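Researcher: Structure for this, please.
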Amino acid sequence: MKYPIAPKGTVTDDYFGTPVPDPYRWLEDDHSPETQAWVKKQQALTETILNQYPARKAMLARLKELNDYPKQSCPIKRGDWYYYAKNDGLQNQWVSYRKRSPEAEEELFFDPNTLSPDGTTVAYQVGISKDFKYFCYQVSQAGADAGEFWVMDTQSKTFLEDKLLNMRHSGASWYKDGYFYSRYDDEQDYQQQDQNQRVYYHKLGDKQEQDKLIYEDPANPLRFYGAYVSDDQSTLFIIISQGTSGDKIIYRPIDDAQAPFQVLFEGFDFDAYPLDAYEEGYVYLFTNKNAKNFRLVKVDLADPAEANWVEIIPERDYLLENVTVIGGKLIAVFVRDVQSRIEVLDTEGKFLYPIEMPYQGTAAFRCGRKEDTEGYFYFSSYIRPDESYHYDLEKNQLSFYHRDPIKAEVENLVSEQVFFTSKDGSQVPMTLTYQKGMQKTGNNPVFMYGYGGFGYALTPSFSSIWIALLEKGFIYVVVNLRGGLEYGESWHEQGMLHNKQNVFDDFIASAEHLIAEGYTCPDKIAIHGGSNGGLLVGACLTQRPDLFKVAIPYVGVFDMLRYHKFTCGWGWIPEYGNPEEEQHFHNLLAYSPLHNVKAGVKYPATMVSTADHDDRVIPGHSFKFAATLQEHAEQELPLLLYTQFEASHGTSNMSKAMELWADIFSFTCLYLGV
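Model: Predicted structure, C-alpha cell format:
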C-alpha cells in the first residue's frame, strides 16, 4: 500500500544520555499547511479502504435506524420546575425541557441545535444560581474543551449579554449576583500548555476585564483551581490539584476577602471533595485518605484538624462511589463487582434501609438541593434500555417513571460477567454480551473495549450502537482493567505510574482467556479504546501484534515522552509519571506506543482515529503514530489515519457519532471477514 509521504526531520532529544529521535515532530503542528495537506491525503486513502466494505452505507443506515427513537434523561428539580433533556431520535444535540410538575405539560427551555447550522456547537451546564434564576452554560465549537460562558435568565429563557471568553476546565459556583470561576492566561494558542489558572469572581453585567481576582499561586503555574460555594453562601472553598488525582482544599468566609485561607485538606497524596452537611459550621468530606475504597467524614470548619474528623460512613471492602445529601438523610451508592448497591443512612451514618434496584447494573441519583425530599434514579445495564424511577424519600418509595422505547430486540441478548487470571495472578473481571445460542466455535468475531486509567470505572450501560455488531454474531467485551476504580483506589494504583504495564497485561490476558475458553481466535479479535484507552490499544498492538487482527485506537495518547507539553497534559503526570524524571522516563519509554513500533513486524489492521478540534489529546499524537506505523509497514493489512472534522475529544453531535461508529464497525467487519 502506498501511503502519503511524510518527510522525516532530524529532531533528536536527549533524555538522561539516551538519544530519542522524533522525525515527525512537524506533525504536532496540525494547523500548518503541510500537516493539513498530509492529513487530507491520509483521509482520502482511508475513505478508499473503507469503501471496500460493501456494507459501509448499510452500516450507517442501520445505526441510524437503531438509534432513531425518542430518548429522555432523568428530571431534576430546580426550584419550581423539573428540568430534563430529550432527543426525538437523531437530533444532533439534546434539547432541554421543563415542567411545573411531573404531570404538567412540558415547555421547551433551550435548544442547542440552534447555535450552529451543522449542529456541532455544544452547550452544557456548568453552574446554577442558588435561586435557580440563572443557568450558566459553556458553549464550545465542535465540542472542544475551550469555549465561552453564557448565562441564561430562566424566567425569560434568553441569554444575557455578558459572555466570558477563553474558558476551559472550570465550573461556575454562584454567589449573590455573580459566580466564581477559573481561567488561564488570555490569548494562548489552543495547543499551548495550560498554565497559571486563577480563580475570579464575575458579577453579572460587568465586563470580563473587570472580574475580581480571588486566588492565584504564581509559584505553582501547573495546578488546577476550582471554586465551590457552600449552600448557605457562608464559605468559599478552593479545590486545588496538581493533576487528575490528589487534592488540597482551602477555605475562608466568603464575605471577608481579607481573611486568610485555612487548610481543610492537605494535598496532594489523596482525593477529597466537600459536601454540605446539615449542621451549621460543618462540612462532609468524601475522601480516600486512609480509605482505599473511600469514606465520608464530618469536619468542623472551626477546627478542621484530622484528629477531630468524625467518621460518618467508614470504609468497606468494596467501593463507596458517591454520597448524596438530601432530605435529612444520606443516599450512598456502593459498587461491588462492578454492580451498584444503594443504601439510605441518617446524617450520622446509621444504616436505615436499602433501595432495591429493578435489575443488576449501574445506578445514579439526581436531585436539586439537600432540602428536597424527592429525586430520580437512573438505572442502566448492558442488555436493558435505560430506565428512570422517581424516589420519594419520606415514603422510601421507588416508582417507575420512564423507559426509552428502543427499536432493538434485546430479549435475546445475554450479559455474562467472567473473571480471568492476569499475568501476575490477579483476578480481573470482564463482561461479555452476545446473542442467546452463541456457541463456542473458537471462531466468533469479538469486539473488545477497555480504558484502565485515571480511576475511571467501566460500569454497565446500555447503547443501541452495539446492537449493530451483536446482530452480526459478535461478542462485545468490556474489560474492567486495573487503573480504574472498580475496586477502589488500590485497583487504580495497580494500574498507574510504574504499574501501568499491568493494564496492558490485563487486556492481553483477557484476549488470551477468550481464546483458551474457545470463544474466538486471534484472527477474529478487534480491540478499541479512546483517549487513555487509545494508549491501551496502541501499547497492546505494539506489544502483542500477533494476538489481534484489528486495532482501532481513538484520540489516543501515543507519545509518552511529550504528552505533558500540550494543553492540560501536565495534569496526567500523577497518572503516568514525569518524562523529565529519569525513573519515569525509562518506564514510559518501555511502553510508549510511538517509540515501540518496530520494522519488519506484522501489525494488526489499524485505523488510528482522531479529531481536528481535539484540544485535550492533540491530534499530533495520532498523526505521529500513524506516520511511524506506515514508515515501518511491511504487510498487506493497512495502517490508516482517520481524522474526523468539526469534532473534538469525543464526537460533537449525533450525526458525527453515527458516522464514526459506522466507520469503526465497517473497518472491523472488513478485516475480520464479517
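Researcher: Any notable elements?
Model: The first helix runs from residue 33 to 50. The radius of gyration is 25 Å.
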